[in-house]
## 1
Amino acid sequence: MSFAGKTAVITGASSGIGRELAKELARRGMTVGVIARRSELLQELVADIRAAGGTVEAAVADVTDRAGLRAAVEGLAEKLGPVDLMVANAGIGEPTGADPMNVPGVERMTQVNFLGVVYAFESVLPAMLERKTGHLVAVSSMASYKGLPGAAGYCATKAAVNSYCESLRIELGNRGVAVTCVCPGFIRTPMTADQTHLMPFLMNADRAARKIADALRRRVKVYNFPWRLYRLMRLTYWLPDFVLRRRAMRINDQTPRD
């Protein structure tokens, strides 16, 4: 798929993967609409893309606000044209284990990580089906493949995204709309900045954006990267529970020292 002359909309574009992907797609000739809650950071992104010769518009919206998100996407489409590529990227992470459970954290992650994808897709899918063309993309995580100690809510919401994308992909396979689920490993973003545990194969966000853009051009069904971490994650599926439990206990026992 050629990006030239096409329109992309990206949620959660004020930082991290979303920000870098917006810049990368603009460099590749796409007209880009960016959505996030933080207006100042969005305007900085808009200035950067325009300074580099790209075409971009921004809208402030929260992906948990169904009506507000739809209005933001519709406003961008009026300015930029029909949306060819929707990237539902907005996401958050919080510790959610068994003791304490942090139920409010699970609720927040469900609203942002999962329902945020549903609402983003809803805002463009009817028009894509009418035109018989389009591409829906959700940014999930390799954490979707295994329930990890202390991250029950995050893993569950990302697993939900994977299943949702798979169901839509199968249903829409002959209707002109592609669906891609992107599952990155550890990316250097504000979400990972304060993490103290081991993050193997940590990748910068700009490099991740280039790899994602390459995958979206090919319209792959699922894109897991980096591949070495993906292999490790698949292996953990077969590990006995006590191995992961001991590992988690060692991580939790590590406290920062001055």
Note: The domain at 7-253 is CATH 3.40.50.720 (Rossmann fold).
## 2
Amino acid sequence: MLRLDNYTFNKNQIVLKFGDYDLSIINDGYGGDKGMYEIGVFKDRDMVELPGVTAEGDTVRGFLSESEVDEILLKMYSITKADPERIR
């Protein structure tokens, strides 16, 4: 099952590769001071919007609870059909 608690943060970040996309999850970004998380999506080293994961016109999403990050992990799998590979 894809869940954030399956991963340990390397300092303040986890990066998972889903096919052509990388998902960065940080615990010290928007909402970090409240115990929340921020995510960003990358493709070919560029931050990108990804419908269903980030909002239109935005490449990051902050103030996320752990369960919201879990939903994003499932969404990334659903979009890419690729199992996540930890790259950082």
Note: DSSP finds one helix and six strands in the chain.
## 3
Amino acid sequence: MNDSLAALRALALAISLGSSMLVATRAAEPAHVHGVVQLNAAIEAGVVTLQIEAPLDSLVGFEHAPRTAAQKQAAQAMLDRFNAPQSLFGLPAAAQCSLRTHSAESEALKSDAAKPSTGAEEHADLDGSFVFECKQASAIDSIDLGGLLAAFPRIVRVEAVVVAPGVQVKRVVTRPDKTLRWGR
């Protein structure tokens, strides 16, 4: 009997701790703010991983499944740009980087059959992940965001976190600046 009571208490404690961690994690998530893009950059062992979260409004001017021909065209043009991330994110030439993998998706842009039914439209984001292999990753001390900002003029600020050997920084790039810097 004592063993089952102890197990029950341990389970209750685990559930309580788990819910506290979930609340803290949700509170720490960045807010959905139009014009503001979240960028995480990790550089490790010759690999650069960029992850972006951007409100669809900041990229295409709406946050729902495309309804008109113009919206469908804008959404496709946006996805085409993210399918060529080298034109959006400029890594220093000395780093000798090449694209390994990439993805960019949004629940709002999935076909109706693939979308979960929520009953109401909410804020919609684009989530992207871009992985580059670099022969000289130590040469990377900045990322040129000029291509991203030129392609999507509704972006007014990029809030970035960079993690690299010996570096862990948070930076904000605001127009007209176009370069995320953390090194030399």
Note: The chain has two domains: 1-30, 32-181.
## 4
Amino acid sequence: MNNKKRFKDKRTIWLSFRYKQKKRDHAGFTLTEILVSSSIMLVVILGALAFYARSNRVTVDQQQYAELQHDVRSAMYLLTRDIRMAGVGLPEEFFLYALEGVNNEDQGGEVKPDRIRILGNLEDPLNLTIDQYQGGQGGGAVDIKVNDGSFEQYPYPLEFYDDKIVLILPNPKSSCRTGAIRKITHVTWNTGGTNEGFNTSPGLAPGMNPPGGLTGDSPCSPDDFDSGLVMFVNVKEFWLDVTGKYPNLTPGVKGYLGEPGVLYMTNNGIHYPLAQNIENFQLEYNGDLDDDGFLDGFKPWDENWTDDQITRIRQVRIYLLGRTPNRFVSVSGQVPKNIYHYRRPEISDSPGTGTDDYHRRFLLETTVNIRNLNLNLYNTGQR
């Protein structure tokens, strides 16, 4: 009997425990608990979103800055490569045609960039001696006879010469120093390499703007060109379009984009965009211009320099300033004083600005030794 009672008491206690346990399981959370937990979760979510937004802004800023650096460095590589080769193929007597600058060109904007023209046999090698030069007076077409076997020195098929631009130079021993740039219409050639020559179109090759005042109608006499030179030539011009509305250029024609901040290389009249988001382009030149045996130091281009002074230029210093296309969104408040990453700096003789616009800048500077004019640099002058 006692055992049954004890069993009944235990069963009663167990059932009571289970009842309380079920009641507790179905009780749920109180309103206070829900509000507290929701507030904590909201703070965590907002903190994560704020961290993500901040990280995303920094990532976007750094990405556009990295792209800007890439554009500036790529353009600088092409600039230095070609400027270093200015004058290649030219006899020393004609170095006045190697380069020509423009200082602070006024395009109607606040920034006034420089530009530089270079000339030389930069792409395809060709250097042939003229046997006989006929025509050319009054801007007419020219027939150029070269020595027999001349074409056989180069691996070009005859059709390769058609429409190529050539520089025709007088005999360096003559007193004439004015050459001509023309376009080849066709070549003549007999089996066995005889009767070789060029026929060229009248006047200056179209779309060309060579340095040194080269014209299509040279004042030299035909006799001055006998024993002169004929070579393929590239007239390259590096310039910055500040406004995107450059005078006398039409967007979509000959490679011109019509967008501001684009650095171009114009090669024989065709415009090739090199980089975008470029804000300023400045150049300085160094040489023994006063002929005292010492390099004079870097100066902006002076339009009053004589041909003789231009032939003594040995170095070009290049400044290329890029600007991010968008403001740096990760910069909040005011930019710290005396930090000029977010304003246009002064470069050479091009003034800067004292106003921050929150666009990040990247300035790259380098100096190029002009290889073909520079052979005696260390013997005749000092840095």
Note: Residues 122-232 form a domain with the Elongation Factor Tu (Ef-tu); domain 3 fold (CATH 2.40.30).
